[in-house]
Design goal:
The protein is mainly β and about 280 residues long. The protein has helices spanning about 115-125, 165-175, 245-250; strands at about 5-10, 20-25, 25-30, 30-35, 40, 50, 60-65, 70-75, 80, 90-95, 100-105, 130, 160-165, 195-200, 210-215, 215-225, 255, 255-265, 270-275, 280. The strands form four sheets. Strands 1, 2, 13, 14, 15, 16, 17, 18 and 20 form a nine-stranded mixed sheet that branches.
């Protein structure tokens, strides 16, 4: 009997570029999975601070709270609860997410009045501020070159969700094993920071997807995902290597971008669960 594709894993990243969380189920909102990348760090000029500049962000854990706040675990420190800030004029800032200007709200105080901006600045060694996307329905539109009217996105790089496949990672790891830096493999899926991971496909099957259904929710494929230096960062140690970019550059370079995974946009909302059937609709 042929193997049918299923949802193999679900992940959210409450704070952009911090550690992700594995879930059994998640609600799909128009702008992405509930709780995914609703928080981000910005520098003094408002530009997003990510693992591109600060690989040690991989070691900071963030857990969402039911009230919209988060609980941070910074290496060497105890848990810190962070409240959602009040969106008053004095607390609103403009965040620059890779050239897109987004109005955001500064994080509220931490537990016992701990100033979270200073704590994270001290950890990273640079001035940063933690901001919250209070209204993703209106704050940040998807790139108009790939969007339909009214589509919005959280603090993700550009699109609401990222989908990858187990078979493609296996194929990539086989290629890495044949290369000059075989000792760096095999790589885990968390290097690619996906939201949805699908099992039961052929390698690189996702290249041909246009629309897909996951359980009760449908998605359209907006664009293949071009990969950056974050994929070379070990998410458990924050150390960097050369893979997978060296191998992607040899085998997965399309239009000047190194491709792994697909950016997708919800066409409907609902709950997706690990084990849900995945159907390629177009």
């Amino acid at each position: 009997m042929p193997v049918r594709p299923v949802l193999h894993a679900l992940r959210v990243h409450p704070v952009k570029s911090m550690a992700g969380i594995t879930l059994d189920s998640a609600f799909v909102e128009p702008w992405g999975l509930a709780g995914d990348r609703r928080w981000a760090l910005i520098d003094e000029t408002g530009k997003a601070v990510t693992q591109r500049q600060q690989p040690r962000l991989a070691l900071v854990q963030a857990e969402p709270r039911p009230d919209g706040g988060i609980r941070l675990r910074v290496p060497g420190l105890g848990p810190l609860g962070v409240d959602v800030g009040v969106p008053e004029a004095a607390d609103t800032v403009v965040a620059d997410i890779f050239g897109t200007k987004v109005e955001a709200v500064l994080a509220g105080p931490g537990a016992d009045g701990v100033e979270v901006h200073g704590l994270l600045s001290a950890y990273l060694g640079v001035e940063v501020r933690l901001v919250h996307l209070d209204d993703p329905a209106v704050r940040r539109p998807v790139n108009p070159l790939y969007a339909r009217p009214g589509e919005t996105v959280s603090f993700a790089d550009g699109f609401p969700l990222l989908v990858t496949t187990v078979a493609s990672l296996d194929a990539l790891n086989c290629l890495i094993a044949q290369g000059d830096h075989a000792e760096e493999g095999p790589l885990p899926m968390d290097r690619f920071r996906p939201n949805l991971v699908v099992a039961g496909t052929a390698p690189w099957a996702e290249d041909d997807w246009l629309r897909l259904g996951v359980g009760e929710v449908t998605f359209r494929v907006a664009r293949a995902c071009g990969r950056c230096v974050v994929t070379t960062t070990d998410q458990r140690t924050s150390e960097r290597g050369r893979e997978p970019l060296r191998t992607l550059g040899r085998y997965r370079r399309f239009d000047g971008r190194l491709i792994f995974g697909q950016n997708i946009v919800p066409e409907s909302t609902g709950t997706v669960r690990v084990g849900d059937p995945v159907t390629v609709l177009d």
